[in-house]
Amino acid sequence: MTKQIAILGSTGSIGTQTLDVVRQHPDRFRVFMISAGSNAALLVQQALAYRVPHVVICNPDKYREVREALPDSFQVHLGIEAACELVQAPEVDTVVAAMVGFSGLKPTLSALKAGKTLALANKETLVAAGALVMGEAARSGARIYPVDSEHSAIFQCLQGAGGNPVEKIHLTASGGPFRTWPREEIAKATKAQALKHPNWDMGAKITIDSATMMNKGFEVIEAKWLFDVPAARIHVVVHPESVIHSMVEFADGAILAQLGCPDMRVPIQLALAYPERLSLEGKRLDFGSLKDLSFFEPDVQKFPCLQLAFDALERGGNISCAMNAANEAMVAAYLKDRVWFYDIPDVIAKVMARTPYLAHPTLDDIFETHRSAYLMASQMIESL
Ligand code: NDP
Ligand code: MG
Predict the structure, then answer these.
(1) Could you read off the pLDDT tens digit of each residue along the chain, which spans 384 residues?
(2) What structural domains and CATH numbers belong to the chain?
């Protein structure tokens, strides 16, 4: 059976790798919709290569360029609202949420509302609005398959749980490019140094999030929502080789792990094809040439963002939404060389402390928390 998929953020790292999976299985997947922020040239190229009937460009300045480059048989739409409608189309089976940051929340909720299967990469939607996102999925019966490699690993390990409760999740982390650097050196790290991730080639925002370990903090929150496991039972373990993608421990001390070469197409393809395992071109793990597999406890003195995420999870309500918004503002500023590395956790902590607490935020509350926390962080950046 051929599945029709809609890709939110097709021009990004996850989006392009999703299309590579489609390329390898043209009999299994067809692309109904693709969307991008501003990258008109790549969007057009993708539309032509995969014969995508619906193409969404979100930046209004780029609409004309996309419209003029594509034949009339392609429908070109402008703006995120168009994407929100298209993901609900009856033709769509699976929506790949691969936009970056809070911007992906609306179309993700829209897909879930229509009961679409969601292949979720855009973890910030769960960080900002986990209760609302999971609530929407529960109401409509939509399934969510994780794309994040760690959560895909946990999901796979849980297939072997036989209904038994999980005692602990061991969430692995590469530790990022600054794992072995002293704090004084990290304090002066440039964006070029932060953008050199040792194991994964990803979009700029998540690469910085990996360098601060905010990404791992987000993943703790993501795991809490996806697998309904409290923070106290989620253990982050630094594993620089990125061979074990995460592990699940049971009451008898037995631990199941999922291993493989670091290749995001594996979890992407599983999320699209589940429960089937399709073939995939790519490197295979060679045990003969594997050297040590090493494990360390994370250092929250060097990477305070990880602790901030645990704090946000403990406080609950709208605090992780504020944390996410402040982080978006800080990462954008860091990528423009406007702030230092440790300004990132400092400002996020202040924004979290000053955000008025709401225990059960509505969607409007979440949008307002995001807006005001982003603004607060931006004002703090000005005064640094
Ligand atoms: P990229 O920055 O590479 O891609 C982001 C995509 O979203 C692009 O298509 C971009 O369009 C689009 N986009 C960005 N902002 C907007 C906006 N305001 N409106 C509409 N579209 C927008 O990100 P990644 O692919 O690396 O990451 C995507 C998500 O997946 C993130 O949430 C990340 O945390 C998560 N993830 C990524 C992994 C990876 O390996 N890359 C691993 C695990 C999770 P344009 O190209 O035009 O800017
Ligand atoms: Mg991950």
Answers:
(1) 899 999 999 999 999 999 999 999 999 999 999 999 999 999 999 999 999 999 999 999 999 999 999 999 999 999 999 999 999 999 999 999 999 999 999 999 999 999 999 999 999 999 999 999 999 999 999 999 999 999 999 999 999 999 999 999 999 999 999 999 999 999 999 999 999 988 888 999 999 999 999 999 999 999 999 999 999 999 999 999 999 999 999 999 999 999 999 999 999 999 999 999 999 999 999 999 888 999 999 999 999 999 999 999 999 999 999 999 999 999 999 999 999 999 999 999 999 999 999 999 999 999 999 999 999 999 999 999
(2) 3-146 (3.40.50.720), 148-300 (no CATH), 316-384 (1.10.1740.10)
**Of the ligands numbered here, which is closest to the C-alpha atom of 331?**
1
Tell if the pTM clears 0.90, that is, is over it: yes
Residue 57 sits at φ, ψ, to 5 deg, of -115, 130
CA of 83, nearest ligand number: 1
9 CB-side CA count, 13 A: 23
Provide the token pair at 382.
């000005």
Q: How far apart are the first and last CA of the chain?
A: 56
Q: Is the CB of 150 under 6 A from ligand 1?
A: no
Residue nearest to atom 22 of ligand 1 (CA): 37
CA angle (295 as vertex; 310, 189 as ends), nearest 5: 65
